[in-house]
UniProtKB/TrEMBL annotation:
Superkingdom of the organism of origin: Eukaryota
Alphabetical list of PROSITE patterns matching this protein: FBOX (PS50181)
Protein name: F-box domain-containing protein
Record domain F-box: where: 1-42
Gene3D superfamilies membership: Ribonuclease Inhibitor
Organism listed in the record: Myriangium duriaei CBS 260.36
InterPro entries assigned: F-box_dom (IPR001810), LRR_dom_sf (IPR032675)
Length: 409
């Protein structure tokens, strides 16, 4: 039975890879229509990288189909030392084509030299870097598990060749059409451990990608002991960090570098405090009131009772000036000091913006503190000025039960 190409195209988009391969063998038309879906999401097999590079250099139209790349278990230097990795050097003629492809990319001479040497040495890092450069329409880059020192990799170097945004402020007209990685809007970096974790400020080439909008990081280091090499602005609008180390200096730098930030979510883990980490709720509050005025979502969360709050006696202070904020999720102590024992505690309804749609707090299991929290939330709930408020709840850490959510609506 004959089906229009539009229907066949929609079928191809919704097939799993195994089914898609069978579909592509059904006819010449099916083969042609399957190509965009087959190449849209790449998770390269490190044992066959040269074959993939050969395909993309010989058939650049297939490289143009790529929308997301997953670099699974990205341990570039470890892989490069393993002779058994499996990907054999191609013949000299094919290798020369890859050299020519690298030299045609308008990269700096230093990066081109690293690419050439890496390709000649059968470097996984260099092959992945060339792969990224060959895919002009890639929108998402994911590194589900990375090793130490990825900031020294060729992959990170080529990402830095995209060109920074001007120091005068973030671009309001979208990324320039002549920039590399102009479609790359989302990056995920999951580090394997906080011990020796990659310092986020060493990953400037990612944070300052010209079109980046979303950064997801796991076990990254945001300590303020390091700084960006030059003052620049990032177009990032959403950041989600889990089990990452951050202090007051790093927090302020992050907000300054991302003036268009709309959503910031930090899920603390048991390794949130390193030996050099100093976090102050007062400093966090000051930075928010100064640099976080465009935020629409702010979330600090923990899976543990009290996590590191016993170290923090201060309060963020009022966040009412964050007039665009719609979602707020914070530890109770961050607003009212350690265990809420302020001499004259402020009223929560005067500390949070009236634009909120969702308000969630996390509180210790202490009965008195829990009662204070409920009272404060009830006042917000019953205040007619919070016309958009739909969610009011708190999370209490019950001994032996873990976190329990209590809905106040």
């Amino acid at each position: 039975m004959y089906l229009p190409e539009e229907i066949l195209h929609n079928i191809a988009k919704n097939l799993e890879v195994d089914q898609l391969l069978k579909f592509s063998r059904a006819s010449r038309t099916c083969h042609r229509l399957a190509q965009p879906a087959l190449y849209a999401h790449l998770k390269p097999d490190y044992e066959h990288l040269y074959a993939l590079l050969r395909t993309l250099t010989d058939q650049p139209e297939k490289a143009a189909f790529v929308r997301s790349i997953v670099l699974d278990h990205f341990y570039p230097f470890e892989y490069d030392m393993e002779e058994s990795h499996g990907d054999k050097l191609p013949p000299t003629e094919e290798l020369s084509k890859l050299f020519a492809a690298a030299e045609s990319l308008s990269l700096t001479s230093q990066v081109v030299d690293r690419l050439r040497r890496g390709l000649q040495d059968n470097s996984t890092d260099a092959k992945l870097a060339l792969l990224l450069c060959l895919c002009p329409g890639v929108e998402s880059l994911s590194m589900p598990e990375t090793a130490y020192f990825i900031q020294d990799s060729v992959v990170i170097s080529v990402l830095g060749e995209s060109g920074p945004l001007p120091v005068s402020g973030p671009s309001r007209d979208g990324p320039s059409t002549d920039r590399r990685f102009q479609s790359l809007t989302e990056v995920q970096i999951n580090h394997a451990d906080t011990e020796g974790s990659t310092h986020a400020f060493a990953l400037e080439s990612i944070i300052f990608l010209p079109a980046i909008k979303t950064l997801n990081g796991h076990m990254l280091d945001f300590l303020g002991r390091q700084r960006f090499s030059t003052p620049r602005y990032s177009s990032i609008r959403e950041i989600k960090l889990t089990y990452s180390i951050i202090d007051s200096g790093g927090w302020e730098q992050l907000l300054i570098a991302c003036p268009d930030l709309r959503s910031l979510s930090i899920e603390f883990g048991d390794a949130i405090l390193g030996a050099e980490c100093e976090l102050s709720w007062a400093s966090v509050g000051t930075s928010l009131r100064t640099h976080g005025l465009r935020l629409e979502k702010l979330s600090f969360e923990s899976e543990m009772d009290n996590f590191f709050l016993e170290e923090l006696d201060e309060s963020m202070g009022s966040l009412s000036s964050l007039s665009l904020l719609q979602t707020l999720n914070l530890p109770y102590d961050s607003l009212f000091g350690r265990t809420g024992q302020m001499a004259h505690p402020q009223r929560l309804k005067d500390m949070v913006p009236k634009t909120l749609r969702s308000l969630c707090l996390q509180v210790d299991s202490d009965p008195e503190l829990r009662e204070q929290c409920e009272k404060q939330l009830r006042e917000v709930r019953d205040d007619s000025r919070f016309q958009e408020l739909q969610v009011v709840r708190y999370t209490v850490f019950e001994p032996g039960r873990g976190p329990v959510q209590v809905d106040m609506r």
